[in-house]
Amino acid sequence: MIKKIAALICITLFIAFSAIAQKQQIFFNVKDYGAKTDGKTLDGKAINKTIDAAVQAGGGTVYFPAGNYLTGSVHLQSYITLYIDQGATIMAAPVTAANGYDDEEPGPANEYEDAGHRHWHNSLIWGDSIHDVAIIGQGSINGKNLYKDWAHGSKQSANKAIGLVRCRNVIIKDISILHGGWFAILATGVDNFTLDNVKFDTNRDGVDVDCCHNVRISNCYVNSPYDDGICLKSSFALGYARATENVTITNCQVSGYDEGTLLDGTYQRSDNAAYHFSPTGRIKFGTESNGGYKNITISNCVFDYCRGLALESVDGALIEDVTITNITMRDVVNDPIFIRLGARMRGPAGTPVGAIRRVIISNIVSYNSAGNYACTISGISGNNVDDITLHNIKMYFKGGGNKPAADSIPENEKNYPEPGMFGASPAYGLFIRHAKNIKISDAEFHFADTESRPALWLNDIAGLYLFHVSAQQNIDIKPMVTNNVTGMTISQSPDLEK
Question: What is this structure's pTM?
Answer without folding.
Answer: 0.93
